[in-house]
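--- STAGE predict ---
source: upstream dedup step, 1 unique chain passed
mode: sequence only
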Amino acid sequence: MIILGIDPGIATTGFGIIRTTGGVPELIDLGIFRTKAGLSLGVRLVQIREDLVGILKQYKPTCVAIEELFFNTNTTTAMKVAQARGVLLEACVAHGVEEHSFTPLQIKSMITGDGKADKRQVQDMIERELGTRIPPSYDDAADAVAIALCLAYSKKL
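--- STAGE serialize ---
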């Protein structure tokens, strides 16, 4: 099974693709989509969708895991990220990809066993699980890989 994990964002969206064979996950690819701050929201959303469609066509994932939104104070940013998340979900469904969502608490708990784990702890655990290093500049991509692993673990259960 090929699983696409997505960490939605308006400026940066992370993606991670894993393959599970016999319950063992293998990292296939990871990366980020970036949009420029000076562009209108609509243009940025189109760019995010087009970037994702390219990934969907290239890797043909069986299913997608996308992070649920969580925000404390900045509702303006949260609204933009929610719109990006909607575009990402729409593109996946339009391409026949089964979608699943996980909250940040679920992701941290499933990956580290601690719902309050920090980003470094999550990244350390996914690197151990997959036997590979993820560059520090790829935080959003590492989060996306963690989301993909959550789906792999939940399917295994």
